[in-house]
Here is the input.
Amino acid sequence: MRIIARTAPIEQPHWQEILASAIRSGDELLRQLNLQDASLNISHQAAKDFPVLVPRTYLARMEVGNPLDPLLLQVLPRQQETEQVSGYITDPLGEADANVQPGIIHKYDGRLLLITATGCAVNCRYCFRRHFDYADNRISRRQWNASLDYVRNDSSISEVILSGGDPLMLKDSQFIDLVDAIEAIPHVRRLRIHSRLPVVIPQRITPELAARLAASRLSTSMVLHINHSHEISPALEMAVAQLKQAGVTLLNQSVLLNGVNNDVDTLQQLSENLFDAGILPYYLHLMDEVQGAHHFDTGKQQALQIYQQLHARLPGYLLPRLVKEQAGKAGKTLILSNNSEIS
Ligand code: SF4
Here is the structure.
């Protein structure tokens, strides 16, 4: 029987209180799960380089006493992160070149990414932005206006993607102001929100936030980031239901991660459970070759083997697209189950 660390309280605290009480050390994480360090090789240096941040609502989805828990492995700082491995670099997607001005990454035609927050509610150890220069992209209100001017001045931009960090780290009032400003730009038709916050703290989807999105003239989608079906909680399902009621399209992107979800049964279950929760599987990413995360990389051959099996098991609408993001390419590279690629 799966014993989880803690059941969710009936009276839920506000999401910012949950965030404030997040776990910030690997030792504390292990203590909460009754685990010893010996087999897990936690590293204080890794935690210094990229801090530990794990909300207790996410901890509650982990299995007590299981050192291989797929959620724990995503957030535990381990010794492998400190190894230098050839080919794993600090900016694997070449985002520095596309960082056209503070707060904006403009890589693809017709859409751009606004960096609206410089932190997340969870620090995922494999994150491709774990070395991103957030200090240079810390955005004041004035810089927000400069970012919005950039969008205003380019009429080819029909979609604005809010990213970060995590854009839902903004308070509701700030987030709503931003939506107001984007909505006032006539050529913008779509708003996309990339967020892992509703997964780790589902209470982030407040009635105010949902109401503002419901009232928007923009076609709005939210791309969640869920790697394992254990991350789908009843509270997340409630948050998703609120968003769907607000007219938001819910999609999911996962990263294929060694030890977390690199087997066909796990990915099949993930797709099926996502769909049951009202979320469409969208992308399955090959891991970006970021320094400090080589131990999560399955390599392309294993990814393809798993994907071919997944292709055989799932109907098309449940099959996420296997993709790789590559520096300098005009879009994601789509990897087909016969090992051909479309860039
Ligand atoms: S939530 Fe996303 S951006 Fe933030 S640490 Fe995790 S993978 Fe990186």
In short: Strands lie at 104-105, 111-115, 159-163, 190-195, 219-225, 249-255, 280-285, 321-324, 333-335, 341-342. The chain has two domains: 16-82, 95-342.
